Structures are given as C-alpha cells and as structure tokens.
Amino acid sequence: MNQFGRLLRLSIFGESHGPAVGVTLDGLPAGLALPEEDFIADLERRKGGQQKGTTPRQEEDRPQFLSGLFNGKTTGAPLTMIFPNSNTRSADYEKIRAFPRPGHADLVAAQKFGGHEDYRGGGHFSGRLTVCLVAAGVIAKKLLRGIAVEARILEIGGEPDIDKGLQRAIDAKDSVGGIVECRVQGLPPGAGGPFFDSVESLLAHAAFSIPAIKGIEFGAGFAAARMFGLEHNDAILNAEGQTRTNHAGGVTGGISTGNELVFRVAVKPTSSTPKEQTSWNRETGSVEAFSVKGRHDLCIALRVPPVLEAVTALVLADLLLQEQKIPNIIS
Amino acid sequence: MNQFGRLLRLSIFGESHGPAVGVTLDGLPAGLALPEEDFIADLERRKGGQQKGTTPRQEEDRPQFLSGLFNGKTTGAPLTMIFPNSNTRSADYEKIRAFPRPGHADLVAAQKFGGHEDYRGGGHFSGRLTVCLVAAGVIAKKLLRGIAVEARILEIGGEPDIDKGLQRAIDAKDSVGGIVECRVQGLPPGAGGPFFDSVESLLAHAAFSIPAIKGIEFGAGFAAARMFGLEHNDAILNAEGQTRTNHAGGVTGGISTGNELVFRVAVKPTSSTPKEQTSWNRETGSVEAFSVKGRHDLCIALRVPPVLEAVTALVLADLLLQEQKIPNIIS
Amino acid sequence: MNQFGRLLRLSIFGESHGPAVGVTLDGLPAGLALPEEDFIADLERRKGGQQKGTTPRQEEDRPQFLSGLFNGKTTGAPLTMIFPNSNTRSADYEKIRAFPRPGHADLVAAQKFGGHEDYRGGGHFSGRLTVCLVAAGVIAKKLLRGIAVEARILEIGGEPDIDKGLQRAIDAKDSVGGIVECRVQGLPPGAGGPFFDSVESLLAHAAFSIPAIKGIEFGAGFAAARMFGLEHNDAILNAEGQTRTNHAGGVTGGISTGNELVFRVAVKPTSSTPKEQTSWNRETGSVEAFSVKGRHDLCIALRVPPVLEAVTALVLADLLLQEQKIPNIIS
Amino acid sequence: MNQFGRLLRLSIFGESHGPAVGVTLDGLPAGLALPEEDFIADLERRKGGQQKGTTPRQEEDRPQFLSGLFNGKTTGAPLTMIFPNSNTRSADYEKIRAFPRPGHADLVAAQKFGGHEDYRGGGHFSGRLTVCLVAAGVIAKKLLRGIAVEARILEIGGEPDIDKGLQRAIDAKDSVGGIVECRVQGLPPGAGGPFFDSVESLLAHAAFSIPAIKGIEFGAGFAAARMFGLEHNDAILNAEGQTRTNHAGGVTGGISTGNELVFRVAVKPTSSTPKEQTSWNRETGSVEAFSVKGRHDLCIALRVPPVLEAVTALVLADLLLQEQKIPNIIS
User: Fold this and answer.
1) DSSP codes, B212-225
2) Do D75 and A123 touch (CB under 8 A)?
3) Minimum-distance CB partner of D236 among C4, C107, C217
4) What average pLDDT does this structure show over B275-303?
5) Is D84 within 8 Å of chain A by CB?
6) Which residue ranges form the domains of chain B, and what is each CATH number?
7) Quick check: ipTM above 0.90?
8) How far is B207 from chain A (nearest CA, A)?
C-alpha cells in the first residue's frame, strides 16, 4: 500500500517514466497558506545536478495543484500535487532490460507483478517519487509551528568530510553510501505512545519507505547496546522532562520527552554503480557481466536529507494532530 | 494505538499490575490447531528467572483463551488470550513514586495522560506485555509453514561471549544492553512493496514496538553506508532471485527477494539499574539521588529474541496472507 | 474484521457459549470516571427477560475490567471489559445442528470457515456480543457531554402500540420485527465529512453491525424519494445553521448541521421463531421440517434501542475527537 | 477522510471548479487490461444531458491515466485517473453566494473549514466527484469475473413510470427524488463477516458516500419489520445455501449467501430546485427568498445507478480479494 498516516493521510502514485508522479494529502487543516515559492528550497535540495555526485537529470519540479487549494490556502479537502515527468529517456533503460539490476527492484517487481510492472527507470520504485514526499513534507513542516526539523549528512563513504568521501567514489569509479542524521527541536512532550504508535515505530516505518535506507537508530542507538545502564540513562532535571544527557534521542516509552529528537539513518551506496557488474541474464539464462548506463547518482545519500525531513515532519504532524496540538483550522 | 496489521490484526491490552494482560488476533485463518504445549517453549524463553541476568518475577504465563478457539482449533473469529497477573508486588513501586525513573515512561506517561496513568510497575508500558506478543507470535509462526524465524543474541555488553558480558554487568553492579539478530529462512519472494508497505518499514515498525529497542538494520545495515556500490550489490544468480552475497538482507525495493531475511536490533541496557542514580523528585522539586528497588533484569536483551521472532512472524504472516500464500482455511 | 473507529478504536471478541465475550476500546481519553453503576441502566435495557417478548436467558452482565482502568478512571491505555458467559445450555443447540437455521449464519459460517466455526448458540455471530457494544457505548456517551443520544421503538410487528404488536406474535406463535428510531440532541455542527467519512456512512456502517438490522434511513429517508425539492429542503434560519424543518435528519453533505440527528432502522423478526420451519438437513441431504428449540426473543427489536444508542455514541465520539471537541484528558 | 477499502484502497480528490477531479486505486491486481473504451458506457450513463431531467453540463469525461498503467494493463502500482474540469461557469455560483443553499453543504462546509472551503459549484462536495467513483467502479467490475452488478431505477417522484415522475417535476417546476435498486448475481458465498465487516455495513458505508442518498435497505428491508419470522425466513434448499425466498437480500450474518444480493437506496430530490426558496442571507443576516441559478438536475436519482454499481463493485472486489477469490495477478 502506498498510503500512510492516521489523521494526516498521505497517498503517493506515479512512475519514473509515466506522465507524472503525485501525492494526495488528506486530513490537512484548512486555511494553511501554500505559496509556491515555499516549496522551492526543499525541492531544490532534493534535486540532482547541483552537487558533485548527484544525477544530471533535471526536472522542473514545481508542484501542480490539482485539488485542495483555493485562494492560495488549503481548504480542508484532499490536496493533490503532481509533478509531470518531462525529462525521461526511456531508451537508456530498454537496452539493459535483459539484466535485472542488482540492488534494484527489477527482478522482485517482475516476480511480484507477473511481469506487468513498468520497468522503465525503476517505474514506481524510482527515487523520483521522493519528490512527492518532499513536497508533502513542506506542507507538514508548516503545520509544525515552532518546531525545527533538520537533517544533515554525517558522513559519505565513511568520511565526515563529504568532498573526500565523494572523491573516493570518483577515484574508484564506483558509488558510495552515507549516514544522515535528523534532529527536531521544539517537539513538545507527549507525542506517540507505547507499542505500535511509538515515535520510533512510526518514524522508522516512514524512513524505511525512502529507497536505499537500510538502518535507523535513535539517540545513542547501536552504541547503547554497549553502554551500562547508568551511563545510558538520561537523568531527569525538572517537571518538563528536560534531561542532563539525551541518549534516548528524545523518545522514552515511545513518547516524545520534549528533549531534542535525534536519529540517524544508513543509506546504502547507489546500486547503479558506473562499474561493470554481474547479474543473471534473462535472455541467455546465464550470469554475465554488464554495465548500468543511464544517469545516476554517485551517492544517493546526498539527496536524502530533505526526504528524511519530509517524512519526519509528516509523522510528527500526524501525531500532533492526534494530540490536538495542531488545530483543524489555521488562522 | 495498540493495534497493528492489515489482514492479521493484533490488539494488545493490559498493565503490569492490573488483573491481566492480553491480546486479540483478528483475521486468523480458521482450522489452525493450537495445543497449549506449543506455546510453552517461546513463553519460557521470554520468561525471566532461568538465566543469570533476568528478573526473578515468575508468572505462570500460559494463555487463557477467551474466544476464537473451538475443539482446539481457530474458528476464524477473533482469538483473545489473556495472561492473568498473579505475582505482583505493587508496594515496591509505590515507595519510589516520587522519582520518575530515567529511561522509563514514568514522566512522559504522567504528562501525556494527565496523571491518570497506572504507574505501578510501568503500567501499560511494562515489558510484561511482551508475553502477549510472544503468544501471538507462536500462532503466526504456525501460519508460516516451511519458514523458520530465528533470533539469537549476537552480543551482550559489547561481548560476543554472553556470560562475559553479563559478568561485566554484575561486576559493575549495573545493567547492560545487547544486540539481537533475526534470520528468516524460506520466505518466498514477493512479500511487501515499495514505500510504506516495505518489509523494512513494517518490520521496523513492529520491532520498535518492543520496549528498549533503539536501532534496527537490515543486511549490511549501517556498514552499507561505508561500502562501495559494487561491493554492496548482491549479484543475481538465477530466475528465482538467488544472490551471491546477501548485503541487502533479503529485501530489495521493499520486497522480499527469497534470500535469507536478516536484520539486527540494538537493545539498550535495562533502565532499572541496581546503581544509585539521580532524577528530579516530584515531591521536593529538586534533583536527588535515588535507587530503583523491585525486580529487574540485568540485561533485558536476553529476553528479546522470542519477542523479536514473534513480531517478525506476525508481520510476515500478514504480508503472506495479502500475497494469498497463506490460505484462509487451514486443513 | 471486528474492529471499528479511527481515533476511538473498538475491538470485540467472544462467542455465545465460550468463556466470555469482551471488548477493547483504544484511544479513550484519560481521566474519565467509570463507576460500575453507570453501566447498569443500559445493560439492563439490553438484557432479555424483563419484557414480554425477550429471551429468559439471564447473564449477570456486569463488566469485568481487565485493563485501562485505575483508581476508577480511564488511564489512556486500552480498556478491556469482559462479560463471562455463565448461563449457557449448549445441549439445546447440539440437538438441532443437522439443520442450518434459516435467517441465522449457521450455513454461511460453515462455508466461510470450513466447518471450524463455533456453532453453539450462533457462536461469534450471536446477539450476545451486543452486550460489548452497549458497555462500550456507555463509555462513549460519557464523552458526549451535553449531547443526548436516545433510541426508542417506533413500532413492533407493524403496530405503534408495542403490546399489540407483541400480542400479534404471541397469537401467531411466531416472531415479529420492528422499527427503532434514534435521535441525538446537542450534536454540534461540523462532525463528519463528504464521501467516506459522512455521518451517514459511519452510522450506517455501525448500525448494520448490529445483528438483524436490514435498513436505515436518515431524516425523511425513503419518504424523501417521494417529495419535491422545495418540500424536502430545510430552510436555513441563521448563522448557526438552524433549519425550519429537518428532513435532512441533521446531516447535510455528510456533515452534522447542528440540528437534531434523526435516523431509523428496520429490525427483522427474530429468525428463531417458535414455529416449525423447513431447511436443508445436513445429515439426510433433503429439505425437512424442524423446530428451533432453545431460548429466543419473540421480538429482537425490543433489545435494539440501547445497542443502537451505543454504536451511535461510539461513532459520534470518534468524530468529535477528530474535531478536537472532546479533549484527550478529561478533568 | 476521502479513502475507503482494505486491500483495494480508493482515494478521491478534486473540486467541481478546480483543475480536475481524480481518484487513486491502490491494491489493484497487476495485469488487468483497461482499454479506454471500456469506461465509456458507465461514464456516459452517469453524465448529464442525455436524459430529460439531467443537467446540460457536458464534460468530456474520459479518464486520463497518470500512473499505474503500462502497455494498457495495470502494473500493481497505484493507478491514478484524473478528469479535468473544462466546462465550468463559476460566475453562476458567485452571484448567489450570499445564500447558503438549503440541502447543500454550503453552510456546514463554511462552519467546518472556517470559510476556507472552495465554494464554487459545491467544491469538493460536488456530485462531479462521482465520475471518479464510476471510473473506479469500471475497474472493480472487471475484477468481478462472472459477477453481474446492475442497478436500475425503481421509481421517480413516487412513480414507477419514470417519464411520469419527471413530468410531475416539470409540471411543478420543482425537482423530485427516486429509489434505485441494485442487484448482484453470481456473488459467491462467504464474502463479508459479522459486525463491522458485514456486507451490509460496507455497502451502506459506500452507498452513503454518494451525495443525496438518505436511506438503504437490504432484501425485504423496512418491510421486514412488519413480517412474521416464518414469513421472513428464507428456507435453505441445499448445501450451496440456495434459498426458496430471498428476503435477506443475499446476506445473512453479514456474509454473502450465494443468493442474489439485493438492496435499494432512497435518493432525495435535487436540492437545487428551480423554485424560489428561502434561506438565511449571510450579508443581510435575515431570512429571504432567493433562486438557485446554474445548471442542475431535475432528478439526481437518474444518475445514481452507475455510481451505485461502482461503489458496490468496489466493496465486493475488496471483499473477494480478502477471500482470495480474486488473484493478485490477472492472466
């Protein structure tokens, strides 16, 4: 299913080489102003082409509103944005169809959908759909008044110096992965709950819906597994729940503590590496060497921060609507 | 919300010191035999008291079936199991109520629920509720014919030798965390989907509903962030999708590949350490030293494997029902 | 699925002759006082035995709280109530098992669940489960402060004089149906929405979950189909939306108007009529005459009003939580 | 919320005078051929203009596929169709904005959404959105192989002779309502369940999402309330569940019996009657006479049959997917 959320319901659709990708957001409060320019910053951050290491494919990437907007503000009805696909070169992909690309969904999609999937450019599995998440996230961030959601790259190719990490990829004629950290300041205590509505459960659910993410950890995360209890525990300082340290990453018992929310995700190296690789050839039935042509990112992690911010903002906005901390009408 | 699943719907309830904890499973196929003895092994694995490092609290921990079972088999109606709480010593907890325990939900629960929460022994936030997950998991495993779900401890207190890790805790008079790995063999390709129904999204959602888990990674996980693309890619060997390596951990594009499913979780050290710690005192309003009395685990990670297996089995059974690979009537 | 609701989630379980029937309510605000005596009135209204025409089966029918209640108030955790089944005479049903009873689910349940269903007394299909709905409704009504939900019988066996209608059944040695009307006063405007969250959609969904209901109409209902537009339209009198007439029954565009909510349901005659009837005999394979023994209602409609009020209150409480008109903490 | 369904998820969006209305269907099996011509018949049936009594507004009403279709077949990814709004005359509506139209959502929408709603032509509340339901229904019908879903008008303005009923409206210079019946042949036994997933609950939920519907009844429906039990009971004839009569309308215990599914809905008269009516004037604050200009149907019930078929097919397809009676891949 391509839907997520309880009160703020997200629904995404589209394929890399179809007419458009798009997103419907249902449950949005009415009265929220959505000037187009407010979408530019995050959409540009997500776009390939600016940074060394990201793909040269350039879509205009401005949302076209099909519904839910009137006089520049949300109406309370479902808001649908689409992003037409204008710059697609399907031929690149046709040539290499014989080889299901390792790391991509080519083969599993064919198995699951009986060969009916749109395989061009990854089809519905394409990272192209993250433009929908980012645009929806811009709206969600607006609902989070006084709350700052910021993701940044911690390391690329194992290097905290990003340029160095990318250079490793360039030198090796290969791709690299990276680690991205997200921090949220100003989140009030009380969002989430124990068990299936824990902040960690919902954020992890949303984060793993971003292609290429293979791990997530909150606060001290995996390092916590090697700490003593006293070392890990965050001493509580006052009635507001402020703590001396923040090894919990801002979530205890599945509920936000009011301290900074901190988590990190691991992004695998781009699967479409420039290097020659091997895969099973559908046509010959044997395992052979091949190369992925087409336009690709040296390091997909570079594009993850605005996407991670987006899904984080969507999850938190949904939780704060449930907490009645975001009103149904914005004024 | 304390519910999870699409076709196989789980709903849990109960508090550590209330009359009982329990679980309702809706959407179960009819005709599945559930002899009581089949629950024993996993429930015993979860129970404290056998192992050095786990709490001496001993509940009988056998499911009482309130509904959904007839002539020893599931009926297709919701199946409810309860576990009465017989062995509770509430007084232990009353004494220390002045101090919201660091690492526990005491303070956030009070904030969120306006002081109405059942605070005895962690109330609804208690690890006691994982008995419900384990029992539900026993049933889910039965639906996964030919599929083996097995979790094991990789390290305790940073040590692959578990006894050594526990000894570190005992020596330090403190608690320790650990890392647990889950592997699933025999999972067919095609379960899950891209985005919000990705196998990773759903398993992570479920795993983070287990108290004390602070990180999860699939396949190479965080290490993938430091690999080159060619190094990380799993070369496809045949039409079945078998791969030479399994850095993806059995999931590509959110969909199971038919290779072994592999993921690891980080478990924080037990928050209720025997050591003296500090917290804000509700009564005096100042930060003071205190000790957590009561019965507690030296290392909660020891009890995680059957719980992790359980939620994994529940997620996979739900996905395979959706794939029509588990029939609605078992014969 | 045996679950309903978005923020206020209801989950029911149990069989007529199993250990107990029960209900879990998740998403309840914390701090709501639930003295046992507040359940008595509605539970007694639902119980058979008092009125001419209802079954002599007498259960104690007082909720046993398994979770979610602490110091007499809701905690914010899932609240589970069970009603043990003490007064069951299964033998009555065994005798007539050869004949799937017309009007009952005997045969469809056997088909759907492959013969694994609990067939005793209708099993999970039994009207016995409405005790769970009524108890949950008592809680929902408490959330609806200043709102009165009242259902009453309009006619029995076609007679507005109820005694007369029952006498028709007694004279005919048969069962009769009836019509029940529900009115809600004090419902604010703004609950619900167009399309799938319309007040009519949700109330109809809930009402048809009550066994034996075969029709529902809002306001003028079926009579509206024979009115002219001008005759049917409710002239609006002021900014609050008060209307001169109320043919819409308090809902326009799927949203509550602030006028009285009015709807009616049709209840079929009890299927277990004392009269001899015919059905296919599983054992002989031929159609034969048989009689339903056991305890049954002459007119099940008599017991519907508190059940209809209950599901109505549950739907409205959920909608008003979404409208942020019921707080998450009751004080 | 503008979403419906469990495995087959429908999400609708758009406003009468916005750029487009549209629908996303998620959970569709892959491999289903969708030639455009297969949409024409039902879309034309729904369109105004052909019949005496329906509005002259003419949209092209052919689906534009944004996603989910490849080589003419469904791919398993979400399928989005839009219907651009080309023929809108907003000025008609601006003039009469002072008067919230009785029977329409004008006032409740303004109350609920704080005046931010798109009020042009009813905005998101418009019957225009039923084109989305009909198009989705065309697809759902294709999934229901061997099952025929047919709705027809039983009466208009109280007259079984439809022309006569419309003439009554024309003579009275007013609008009229009507009754529509839906019959489904070939539905296998076993769809649905007791309580909240009853066939009646789901169909009623869906039917009331169609604007102007104010009542629904299954089988004998309201007439059942005036029957004796023996008269109403449908004698079972064989192991397949075939019955002598069909007062139940094909549903017993919430589950399809395999007999014909039969239900009727009541459609209120078009609220936008040509006659002068009265309403509160927002600008003057007093109740005054006014006339609704614009294009409107004399009898909206005429357009209901394909819409009712559509939502019926969607509900049944979802249930049969759950029953594993529709495969995930169509071949």
Assistant:
1) TEEEEEETTGGGGG
2) yes
3) C107
4) 90
5) no
6) 3-322 (3.60.150.10)
7) yes
8) 7
